[in-house]
């Protein structure tokens, strides 16, 4: 079986994946790649920042249907860039915001909200 990078999921399916992930998890990171193989530096940074404060959190690999995930996430966050972190259903930000919260000493509290 070969992977076709031009193949994508239907928008409705991606919308449901995003909605379900946000509603069903205390903390969810939408990222490029997986925790074992992050596919961009920003996703890796976000993963490490969250992982330094939480043992358990959900990740969603957006590369399976990148354009559709951008559209779906934009509906929830107003942002098109990835990674995106949600805590208790609320958009927190990407790796830059997580880094700023870490510098200010607020990331741990934000992730345990």
How would you sum up this structure, described in words?
- With 113 residues, the protein is of the alpha+beta class.
- The protein has a single domain (11-111), classed as Glutaredoxin (3-Layer(aba) Sandwich).
- Helices cover 45% and strands 15% of the residues.
- The protein has a four-stranded mixed β-sheet, with helices on both faces.
- β1, α2 (41-51) and β2 (58-61) form a beta-alpha-beta unit.
- α1 (11-24) crosses α3 and α2 packs across α4 (95-103).
- It is globular, with a radius of gyration of 14 Å.
- The chain starts with 10 loop residues before the first helix and ends with a helix.
- The mean pLDDT is 93.
Question: What labels describe this entry?
Answer:
single chain; Glutaredoxin; 113 residues; globular; four-stranded mixed β-sheet; alpha+beta; 5 helices; 4 strands
Break the fold down into its secondary structure elements and pairings:
Elements: H1 11-24, E1 27-31, H2 41-51, E2 58-61, H3 66-77, E3 84-87, E4 90-93, H4 95-103, H5 107-111
Parallel strand pairs: 1-2
Antiparallel strand pairs: 1-3, 3-4
Helix pairs in contact: 1-3, 2-4
Quickly describe the structure.
The protein is α+β, with helices and mostly antiparallel strands and 113 residues long.
């Amino acid at each position: 079986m070969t992977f076709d990078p031009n193949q994508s999921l239907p928008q409705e399916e991606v919308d449901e994946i995003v909605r379900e992930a946000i509603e069903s998890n205390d903390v969810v990171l939408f990222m490029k790649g997986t925790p074992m193989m992050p596919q961009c530096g920003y996703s890796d940074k976000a993963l490490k920042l969250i992982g330094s404060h939480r043992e358990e959190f959900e990740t969603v690999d957006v590369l399976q249907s990148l354009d559709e995930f951008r559209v779906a996430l934009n509906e929830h966050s107003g942002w098109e860039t990835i990674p995106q972190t949600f805590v208790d259903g609320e958009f927190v930000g990407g790796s830059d915001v997580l880094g700023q919260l870490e510098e200010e000493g607020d990331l741990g509290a934000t992730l345990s909200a």
